[in-house]
Design a protein that fits this description.
The complex is a heterodimer of chains A (about 325) and B (about 525). Chain A has a domain of about 220 residues: MetI-like (MetI-like fold, Orthogonal Bundle), CATH 1.10.3720. The N terminus of chain A is likely disordered. The two termini of chain A are about 20 Å apart. In chain A, about 75% of the residues lie in helices and about 0% in strands. Chain A has a two-stranded antiparallel ribbon. Chain A contains twelve helices and two strands. In chain A, a hairpin with a 4-residue loop joins strand 1 and strand 2. Chain A is mainly alpha-helical. Chain B contains 19 helices and 20 strands. In chain B, helix 13 crosses helix 14, helix 13 runs parallel beside helix 15 and helix 15 packs parallel to helix 16. In chain B, strand 4 and strand 5 form a beta hairpin. With about 525 residues, chain B is of the alpha/beta class. Chain B has a six-stranded mixed β-sheet, sandwiched between helices. In chain B, strands 16-17-18-13-19-20 form a six-stranded mixed β-sheet, sandwiched between helices. Chain B has two domains: about 220 residues, P-loop containing nucleotide triphosphate hydrolases (Rossmann fold); about 250 residues, Rossmann fold (3-Layer(aba) Sandwich), CATH 3.40.50.300. The chains are: A mainly alpha (about 325), B alpha/beta (about 525). At the A-B interface, helix 9 and helix 10 of A face helix 2, helix 3 and helix 6 of B.
């Protein structure tokens, strides 16, 4: 029998949101704990690297530094400190960078967000477009071409694509910059500055997106082919709708639902992909920050970046679920 | 005036490798203004292809090779895609079989109807909205405002079919093509939809091309009838003439296969302890959302009956009445919440699944869908023998018994090595019955065993079941939504409504003097019942 229409209740959505956040707390704590102990398995600490870089240091000096940074404490004491700091939402201090971890992360976050969101947009638009074209021309040459490109796309390692693009577009053609986010020397402001950032953005975004374009193209193709034969698409055609509208409103609208799920789930992989890309292109983002923290044994910073990224993934999954319930009326948050 | 639709010597070619060269061959039909033409046939007769050809939605690998289709004098064969698109919706509306899947799940009802206007650039936005609401009212949906804002999953099957009818009707086309529009609906809903279609046809003078397999429905709605067999038109004429004096053998065979609502003379059932006795059976389904209390649906409530050996109890009801739940509880595919079940005098209440297993031999099930209920990767001999092997019969013996069973259900024993896809629907249902009989049960639960079959096949399967019942002294619980079938096979009938048995009587008595209001509603809704 017919059910009442869904209550457009913000209160229910809010309750759902609260519940999901509550559920995320143990996840995040578990991640924090595991990170803390796993990172301690690696030999060497901050003081070792600092001493190494200084060329030489006396054992006494190193012991003093360890005492200063609290590294002389037993592991579990450090752990308790770490937890109590976390409870106060304090991610700690990066002795190496002489600033708080949170400040460091927040200063890098916009750059990473810019890189990731641009890549995601390119991947979605490119992948869905290619997949739709492939399905439209199934078994013909455009389909074969797209499918060949996709295969290359997800068989090629990220860093290699990045390097090859640099060789081609920066070294040989000299069209685009090889790395960084701006031309620091030029000291541009306003619109020229934005254009400069955009120029720097092209290669890293493209490198990061290639893999996802390939995945989304494949998924879209198969989803479109599946939805195309469903009854309601036939109903739409029986109305006399133009093929373009049938495709956009009836086929794609339904075919994109699984892709939304996939995108949410892949947010984490995209984040780790950006570590590689940021390193290759010297992009001053969080990935690069994490990478440096590993080599400097800056555990506080590394823990902070990891925890922060985990939270990002948890939040993005939550957003995906909410978005999904907006896109698919059959799914009601409760 | 020319007929609204005139199909002349139309042939549709099937792709190479199909079981025959033409989907339909040399078929000629015509429909006058305001008239309903029923095209009748069994699966594979080409009736749906005829419908799709009329609205220009044939699959890409089926194409017209000769003949013509004229709508109000205008030739449709060979029309460009753009021109054909202009015809669809504006001049020809279509209603499909499956209301559950023929609406887009992520768009609101109102938007889906308004889309018809949009597709043909009719009305401005407020005008579209106003017409949409009018249409929703005209097809008998309550509260059009609220209905327009809903999504398909919030509507019942009958309501969805009304929405599809509203869409087909939106631009008042000259012709509506209805492909089995009520086949997926409950009998009372079917009666309402047929009445609605008829009223709309009278009001707007729309011609209807009505595709169906059901002569009961034909008797209800048709002005004229065309009978298709294997893509050829075998008989056409006025509905009254064809139904009362069919000229062609095939038409006669189809009409004869339609079970009568007149029950046969009652059989004599030997007294004795019941093969199965059910008392106070109860099953409640609960949805368990994360936080809220959840909904409880009583699928079976205080259900009690007995069946003797050699007797058939028909369990009839509409979808959601709980009839299948009862069947599944008996064989413990579903765990009942309460009540008692005695099999041959032995109580099985509270037995764990493993303790129930030896008893399961005595009660077996025949399923509805002969296509989905056989494992496609197992030979049918193996499928039949699996049960006895699990009960401890040596493999060699079980396989040889499987051969005997195949002969018992009218198949050759050599086919035991074949796979399900090599058999037709009727043959698969025979296999399903052989599988159920493998462990020599006393009780058979048959859940809609003939609903997925064509009428002529249906009749042979029902005959087989009855023959086996007499030979083996089976007690049968026959679950069905089809009162005609129930009338023919049941000694007694139990009518289920919302989880309860509202009436249980000898078949003859039930049809003569139904007491419960719901039983009477059900009986009067049977298509062609008064004919």
């Amino acid at each position: 029998m017919s059910k009442p229409p869904p209550v457009a209740g913000t209160s229910r959505a809010l309750r759902y949101l609260g519940l999901r956040c509550l559920q995320a707390v143990p996840t995040v704590i578990a991640i924090a704990v595991l990170n803390f102990f796993f990172l301690r398995l690696a030999p060497g600490d901050l003081v070792d690297t600092m001493a190494g870089e200084a060329g030489a240091a006396t054992p006494e000096y190193m012991a003093m530094l360890r005492q200063l940074y609290g590294l002389d404490q037993p592991v579990w004491t450090q752990f308790l400190h770490y937890l109590s700091r976390l409870a106060h939402l304090d991610l700690g201090y990066s002795f190496r960078n002489s600033t708080t971890v949170l400040d460091l992360i927040l200063s890098r976050l916009p750059n990473t967000a810019l890189l990731m969101l641009s890549s995601l947009a390119v991947a979605l638009v490119g992948g869905v477009a290619l997949g739709t074209i492939g399905a439209r021309w199934r078994g013909r040459w455009p389909d074969a071409l797209i499918s060949a490109i996709s295969t290359v796309g997800f068989a090629t390692p990220l860093f290699w694509i990045g390097l090859m693009l640099i060789v081609l577009f920066s070294v040989h053609l000299r069209w685009l910059p090889a790395g960084g986010m701006t031309d620091v020397e030029a000291g541009r402001t306003g619109l020229p500055y934005l254009l400069d950032v955009a120029r720097h953005l092209v290669l890293p975004v493209f490198s990061l997106a290639v893999f996802y374009v390939a995945i989304y193209a494949r998924m879209t193709r198969s989803a479109v082919l599946e939805v195309r034969d469903l009854d309601f698409v036939r109903t739409a055609r029986a109305k006399g709708l133009a093929p373009r509208k049938v495709m956009a409103r009836h086929v794609l609208r339904n075919a994109l639902l699984p892709i939304v799920t996939m995108t949410g789930l892949q947010f984490g992989t995209l984040l780790s992909g950006s570590v590689v890309i940021e390193t290759v292109f010297a992009w001053p983002g969080m990935g690069r920050l994490a990478f440096d923290a590993v080599f400097q044994r800056d555990l506080n910073l590394l823990l902070g970046v990891l925890l922060f990224s985990s939270c990002l993934v948890v939040v993005s999954n939550l957003c995906t679920d909410l978005l999904y319930s907006v896109l698919d009326p059959r799914i009601e948050v409760r | 005036m020319p007929p609204i639709l005139e199909i002349n010597k139309l042939s549709l070619a099937l792709p190479p490798g199909a079981d025959r060269p033409f989907a339909i061959e040399n078929v000629s039909l015509s429909i006058e203004r305001g008239e309903t033409l029923c095209v009748v046939g069994e699966s594979g007769s080409g009736k749906s292809m005829t419908a799709l050809a009329a609205i220009g939605l044939l699959p890409s690998n089926v194409r017209p090779v000769s003949g013509s289709i004229r709508l109000d004098g205008r030739e449709l064969v060979g029309l460009s895609d753009r021109d054909m698109r202009e015809m669809r919706g504006r001049n020809i509306g279509m209603i499909f079989q499956e209301p559950m899947t023929s609406l887009n799940p992520v768009l609101r009802i109102g938007d889906q109807i308004a889309e018809v206007f949009e597709a043909h650039d009719v009305h401005d936005a407020p005008g579209r909205r106003r017409r949409t609401l009018e249409l929703l009212g005209e097809v008998g949906l309550p509260d059009p405002q609220a209905m327009a804002a809903r999504y398909p999953h919030q509507l019942s099957g009958g309501q969805r079919q009304r929405v599809v009818i509203a869409m087909a009707l939106a631009l008042e086309p000259k012709l509506i093509v209805a492909d089995e529009p009520t086949t997926a609906l409950d009998v009372t809903t079917q009666a309402q939809i047929l009445k609605l279609l008829d009223a709309l046809r009278r009001r707007h003078g729309t011609a209807i091309l009505f595709i169906t397999h059901d002569f009961g429905v034909v008797a209800e709605v048709a002005d004229r009838v065309a009978v298709l067999q294997n893509g050829r038109l075998v008989e056409a004429g006025r509905s009254i003439d064809v139904l009362s004096a069919p000229a062609h053998d095939y038409t006669r065979k189809l009409l004869a296969a339609l079970p009568s609502l007149e029950p046969p003379a009652p059989r004599k059932i030997a007294p004795g302890i019941p093969a199965i006795a059910v008392a106070g059976l109860r099953k409640t389904y609960r949805s368990q959302p994360l936080l809220s209390a959840g909904e409880a649906v009583a699928a079976a409530e205080a259900v009690s009956f007995e069946i003797r050996r050699g007797e058939t109890l028909g369990l009839v009801g509409e979808s959601g009445s709980g009839k299948s739940t009862v069947g599944r509880c008996l064989v413990r595919l579903t765990e009942p919440d309460g009540g008692s079940i005695r099999i041959g005098g032995t109580s099985v209440d509270g037995l764990s699944q493993s303790r129930f297993r030896p008893i399961r031999r005595r009660i077996q099930m025949v399923f509805q869908d002969p296509f989905a209920s056989l494992d496609p990767r197992r030979t049918i001999g193996r499928t039949i023998a699996d049960g006895p092997i699990a009960q401890g019969t040596p493999k060699r013996e079980a396989l040889s018994n499987a051969g005997d069973l195949l002969e018992l259900v009218g198949l050759r024993r050599e086919v035991a090595d074949r796979y399900p896809h090599e058999f037709s629907g009727g043959q698969r249902q025979r296999i399903g019955i052989a599988r159920a009989l493998a462990s020599k049960p006393e009780i058979l639960v048959a859940d809609e065993p003939v609903s997925a079959l064509d009428v002529s096949v249906q009749a042979t399967i029902l005959g087989l079941l009855q023959e086996l019942q007499e030979k083996l002294g089976l007690a049968i619980l026959f679950v069905t939504h089809d009162l005609r079938v129930a009338a023919q096979v049941s000694d007694r009938i139990a009518v289920m409504h919302r989880g309860r048995i509202v009436e249980l009587k000898a078949t003859g008595d039930l049809f003569r003097s139904a007491e419960h209001a719901y039983t009477r509603a059900l009986l009067s809704a049977v298509p062609g019942g008064r004919a």
